[in-house]
Design a protein that fits this description.
The chain has 367 residues and is α/β, with parallel strands linked by helices. It folds into 3 domains: 114 residues, no CATH class; 37 residues, no CATH class; 164 residues, TIM Barrel (Alpha-Beta Barrel), CATH 3.20.20. The strands form 3 sheets. Strands 5-6-9-10-11-12 form a 6-stranded parallel β-sheet. It has a 4-stranded antiparallel β-sheet with strand order 1-2-3-4, with no helix packed on it.
Length: 367
């Protein structure tokens, strides 16, 4: 089996020769540490080098799954400009229209000053940058790119945006949280336009070529649960998800992944009803339990992630206990790819990470 066939067979609960070897992502500081611990400096500089060094399959992780991209962003983007600088504090506008403030001194947390949408008038204005007919939304030679990647054994992904994630990028978390209650008509309008806009772009792409899977991005939960009332979100979002997932499935794209950090237990039924059938990264620190999810949802829900980054940092005993408590069962049940439950942080040593990979390979190979 090549990497593409293995991915498809795994996520369709078939009989792959083994599970895919993937990783979510790595922090840059992690690579800096690992180079000091003996990893060649050339490794982090390319996908091929990372894949060869760690033994990953093609198209692994968050950075490399978008191999059949469409452009859902602002066209044109906002002007990136410095608004002011005083005593080392920079206030600037980014290409996403967000005005933020940060310090030149060391690692500072960026403070958000203003998001581009405060009200309906702002949204009507920003829609001019979100015209689905703008040239370049579907890249030139899209069909040729998808066809070649698949021929080379790469599972190909088409990004299909999101709803909470999109609205939060326009309004900020606080602004959106208030808008769900103070301006519900605006939130509904944003969601409905998002569907209309994404539908047209994705349909155009699908008429040219069929990627292997699709991905929504939301990031709409924190450690204890959803950032919005699940009941309210269900009312607004299920029908919107369904329009996009029905489109995807009508073209044969049957693996539909959603990426959200945090505890998403209360959101999973909403996503399933919306036609989504796979989630990741299953953050263990947020009490996401992949074994319980598999027992509850069976083959309705594919799972990716679930390996506790905190265990990776603690040492071999903690890694062994975490991996062996879930991975053998999940591999046997199918529809599962193990990865770190977010980007691998800098407190994980290279020795610990290589031990983790060794365990995964042994399980995958039945040793």
């Amino acid at each position: 089996m090549n990497d593409r066939e293995r991915f498809l067979e795994t996520m369709r609960f078939g009989q792959p020769d083994r599970i895919p070897y993937w990783e979510c992502a790595f922090w840059g500081e992690t690579f800096a540490r690992w180079i000091n611990e003996g990893m060649p400096e050339s490794v982090p500089k390319s996908q091929d080098s990372l894949r060869e060094y760690f033994g990953f399959d093609r198209s692994f992780g968050v950075y490399f799954r978008g191999t059949a991209p469409v452009n859902l962003g602002f066209m044109p983007g906002f002007e990136h400009k410095v608004i002011s600088e005083e005593d080392g504090i920079i206030t600037e506008q980014g290409g996403d229209g967000v005005i933020s403030r940060w310090s030149r001194e060391g690692h500072s947390t960026r403070q958000f000053v203003r998001f581009p949408v405060q009200n309906r008038e702002d949204f009507l204005e920003i829609k001019k940058r979100l015209d689905p007919s703008t040239a370049g939304r579907v890249p030139d030679k899209f069909k040729e790119r998808v066809t070649q990647l698949q021929a080379d054994g790469y599972p190909t992904c088409i990004q299909v945006g999101g709803y909470y994630g999109f609205a939060r990028s326009l309004m900020g978390m606080e602004g959106l949280s208030l808008a769900f209650y103070d301006q519900p008509e605006l939130v509904e309008e944003i969601f409905e336009y998002r569907t209309e806009y994404v539908y047209q772009i994705v349909e155009k792409a699908l008429k040219e070529a069929k990627p292997d899977f699709a991905e929504f991005w939301e990031d709409m939960a924190f450690k204890s649960g959803s950032l919005v009332s699940p009941k309210l979100y269900r009312k607004l979002a299920v029908k919107q998800y369904r329009k996009i997932t029905d489109l995807l499935k009508s073209y044969g794209v049957d693996i539909i992944l959603l990426d959200s950090d945090g505890n998403v237990d209360d959101l999973i039924p909403i996503w399933l009803d919306g036609g989504i059938n796979c989630i990741w990264p299953l953050e263990v620190a947020s009490d996401m339990d992949p074994v319980a999810l598999r027992k509850k949802y069976g083959k309705e829900l594919g799972l990716i992630g679930a390996i506790d980054k905190r265990a990776m940092a603690k040492g071999k005993e903690a890694i062994y206990n975490d991996v062996m408590s879930k991975v053998p069962f999940l591999v046997e049940a199918g529809g599962f790819i193990p990865t770190c439950d977010h980007a691998v942080p800098q407190d994980v040593s290279l020795e610990n990470y290589m031990y983790y990979l060794e365990l995964i390979h042994k399980i995958a190979e039945g040793k």
